[in-house]
Design a protein that fits this description.
alpha/beta, Rossmann fold, 12 helices, about 290 residues, 8-stranded mixed β-sheet
Length: about 290
């Protein structure tokens, strides 16, 4: 088994918790988690890939074990600022980037701002195209139009039933899922201040949709080597969102898996194998 180290570093007053496997000097892979999870979602992938890569997975502000100041502003711009500062603090100058769910708009902000830092892109159920948003987003569209009127509905997204459903819906064999994953996510969701943070971020998610054209332009112009691994039964991000990457990055490698949103939970070995196959030729060529 690969050793996974658990560290904390101060980044502009935010105590960022992160997991790390492999050693500096190996090709770096930055992994950004989604809602409502944390770096815990990458626990097995860090073990799988740490023999070849230097893997770094932080908990974003508002999630997991990262501790933010009481006056922290929860927007995706701010999450990206902290993540950018974090990469510099831990010495990640250029890296392959793995994004999932909320991690996608954070990572796309980094990539679009400094394209030369992102050597390659791995997208797992992280949407950048409006056609990838399912009917499951209708409550959020209503929330964006009138926050006060729809906040109670959106609070329902933060319940244990909703958290569990994100893991189980679309999965062919739920017995393969470890229940401590959604149990841990719910524990963090219910920490003091986290409900307000999530409501702010879910409201701010509208800014991500507004920036989709900008990020699509980045993909068209820079065409980073791109691997898309996607749970095709995701109730939130549809396969159309995965297939759309080929429109802007024609040689993108797209793999649709017979699972749901948290594809790593039951298809982790498959995804790890896809990542190795995708990155090895680039590592051999001197780039990740």
């Amino acid at each position: 088994m690969t050793a996974i180290r658990h560290r904390t570093i101060d980044v502009d007053g935010v105590e960022v918790f992160y997991r790390e496997s492999g050693t500096p000097g190996r090709p770096p892979l930055l992994l950004l988690h989604g809602f409502p999870s944390s770096s815990h979602m990458y626990r097995h992938l860090l073990d799988e890939l740490g023999d070849e890569l230097h893997c770094v997975a932080p908990d974003l502000p508002g999630f997991g074990l990262t501790a933010s100041p009481a006056d922290f502003t929860y927007t995706f711009d701010r999450l990206a600022e902290v993540t950018d500062a974090f990469t510099r603090a831990v010495g990640l100058d250029r890296f392959a980037l793995y994004v999932f769910d909320f991690g996608a708009p954070v990572g796309m902000r980094l990539a679009a701002a400094e394209p030369d830092r992102v050597e390659s892109l791995i997208v797992q159920n992280g949407n950048v195209y409006e056609e990838g948003l399912s009917a499951g987003f209708e409550p959020l569209y209503a929330y964006w139009r009138d926050r006060a009127a729809h906040e109670d509905t959106v609070r329902g997204i933060l319940t244990i039933d909703s958290t569990r459903l994100q893991y189980t819906e679309g999965v062919r064999d739920p017995a393969l899922l470890a229940p401590e994953a959604w149990t841990l996510d719910q524990h963090f969701l219910e920490l003091p201040g986290r409900t307000a943070a999530m409501l702010d971020l879910l409201f701010d998610y509208r800014t991500n949709v507004e920036r989709y054209p900008e990020w699509q332009a980045y993909l068209r112009e820079h065409r980073p080597p791109t691997l898309v691994v996607w749970g095709r039964n995701d109730p939130y991000f549809t396969p159309a969102g995965a297939e759309a990457f080929a429109r802007d990055v024609p040689d993108a490698e797209i793999r649709l898996l017979d699972t749901g949103h948290f594809a790593l939970e039951d298809h982790g070995a498959v995804i790890a194998s896809e990542i190795r196959s995708f990155l090895r030729p680039r590592v051999s060529a001197g780039r990740t």
